[in-house]
């Protein structure tokens, strides 16, 4: 036996259970979950496809979109036409194999936030993925009275999971009793007409977000906690606006008022 064969694999070898294509550039899928795989809702993990003989797998970071208590692992993905991973990943079918790294990590976790009353989950594009995990975790609802999911996208068709959030998560097996009436879904669309239009940064700056939610014109450090996920530019600008309201960034080591993570390099 060679050394390589004796070494334990750094991956769990999972099977695709279902695939849902939302648009030409967005899809979701779920896989089986190894019993030994533990993660905290909101964390990300490296995933990939099994490589050809003698090659190394192409791995990319993915937020786990399912909560830590779920039996399946769910992912929400972009399709980059010439992307090394997603040009192939978008073709997966039920039964196909997916490599899932054994070391999930990340800062978009409840542990990195101090207690509060309202939790804002702000994401652009596929930056919605970690909120699918956090919002479907019962611990979120025992720690916060209200959860506001803000999803900023280019086109209305990019509002994946819209029905799930518009239903208040009423059919969810884990939080279906707690979330309805306490979940606020706040989608914004930037490149075509919609009831709430414009970048989330603009809606915070103008105070529209707060007016729409019946709040005073800023995040309140005494009550509000925020998680941010999306492109680098969106996160940077939004974090500046949040800091201007007096909220302080948190981490796993030192919980704070808000946390952030970029969903892709760009
Ligand atoms: C911590 C972390 C978590 C992530 N979680 C997710 C996730 O849950 N879902 C997901 O789809 N991607 C996620 N990504 C991005 C992901 O790792 C890959 O970049 C993506 O799957 C594309 O891989 P690729 O090999 O096809 O193309 P890459 O070579 O990785 O990317 C090519 C280009 O496509 C653009 N791009 C890549 N990913 C995205 C994206 N998600 N949205 C918009 N533009 C993008 C960027 O301009 C990038 O330079 C995450 C990245 C990080 C760092
Ligand atoms: N329908 C589509 O064709 C489609 C859908 C998804 C992804 N894609 C492809 O995927 C890539 C990334 O697109 P994406 O839509 O997922 O991500 P994205 O470009 O980050 O856009 C997502 C949302 O974030 C907003 N945004 C961008 N920069 C911001 C900033 N600095 N502050 C505040 N908000 C900001 C965008 O507004 P603006 O519109 O004002 O930029 C948009 O509403 C692109 O290459 C795109 O071609 C295409």
From TrEMBL:
<keyword id="KW-0274">FAD</keyword>
<dbReference type="InterPro" id="IPR033892">
    <property type="entry name" value="FNR_bac"/>
</dbReference>
<keyword id="KW-0560">Oxidoreductase</keyword>
<dbReference type="InterPro" id="IPR017927">
    <property type="entry name" value="FAD-bd_FR_type"/>
</dbReference>
<dbReference type="Pfam" id="PF00175">
    <property type="entry name" value="NAD_binding_1"/>
</dbReference>
<dbReference type="InterPro" id="IPR039261">
    <property type="entry name" value="FNR_nucleotide-bd"/>
</dbReference>
<keyword id="KW-0521">NADP</keyword>
<dbReference type="GO" id="GO:0004324">
    <property type="term" value="F:ferredoxin-NADP+ reductase activity"/>
</dbReference>
<comment type="similarity">
    <text>Belongs to the ferredoxin--NADP reductase type 1 family.</text>
</comment>
<keyword id="KW-0285">Flavoprotein</keyword>
<dbReference type="InterPro" id="IPR001433">
    <property type="entry name" value="OxRdtase_FAD/NAD-bd"/>
</dbReference>
<dbReference type="InterPro" id="IPR017938">
    <property type="entry name" value="Riboflavin_synthase-like_b-brl"/>
</dbReference>
<feature type="domain" description="FAD-binding FR-type">
    <location>
        <begin position="9"/>
        <end position="111"/>
    </location>
</feature>
<protein>
    <recommendedName>
        <fullName>ferredoxin--NADP(+) reductase</fullName>
        <ecNumber>1.18.1.2</ecNumber>
    </recommendedName>
</protein>
<dbReference type="InterPro" id="IPR051930">
    <property type="entry name" value="FNR_type-1"/>
</dbReference>
<keyword id="KW-0547">Nucleotide-binding</keyword>
């Amino acid at each position: 036996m060679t050394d390589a064969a004796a070494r334990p694999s750094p991956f769990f070898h999972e099977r695709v259970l279902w695939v849902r294509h939302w648009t030409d550039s967005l899809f979701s899928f779920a896989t089986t979950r190894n019993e030994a795989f533990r993660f905290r809702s909101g964390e990300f993990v490296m995933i990939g496809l099994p490589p050809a003989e003698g090659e190394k797998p192409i791995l990319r970071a993915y937020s786990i979109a399912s909560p830590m208590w779920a039996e399946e692992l769910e992912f929400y993905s972009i399709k980059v036409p010439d992307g090394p991973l997603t040009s192939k990943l978008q073709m997966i079918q039920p039964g196909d194999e997916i490599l899932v790294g054994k070391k999930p990590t990340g800062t978009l976790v409840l542990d990195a936030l101090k207690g509060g009353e309202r939790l804002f989950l702000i994401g652009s594009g596929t930056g919605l993925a970690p909120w699918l995990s956090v919002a479907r975790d019962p611990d979120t609802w025992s720690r916060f009275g209200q959860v506001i999911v803000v999803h900023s996208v280019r086109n209305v068709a990019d509002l994946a999971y819209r029905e799930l959030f518009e239903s208040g998560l009423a059919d969810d097996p884990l939080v279906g009793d707690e979330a309805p009436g306490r979940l606020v879904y706040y989608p914004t669309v930037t490149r075509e007409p919609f009831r709430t239009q414009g970048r989330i940064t603009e809606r915070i700056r103008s105070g529209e977000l707060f007016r729409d939610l019946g709040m005073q014109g800023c995040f309140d450090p005494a009550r509000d906690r925020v998680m941010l996920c999306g492109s680098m530019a969106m996160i940077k600008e939004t974090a500046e606006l949040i800091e201007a309201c007096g909220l302080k960034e948190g981490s796993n080591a030192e919980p704070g008022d808000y946390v952030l993570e970029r969903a892709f390099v760009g």
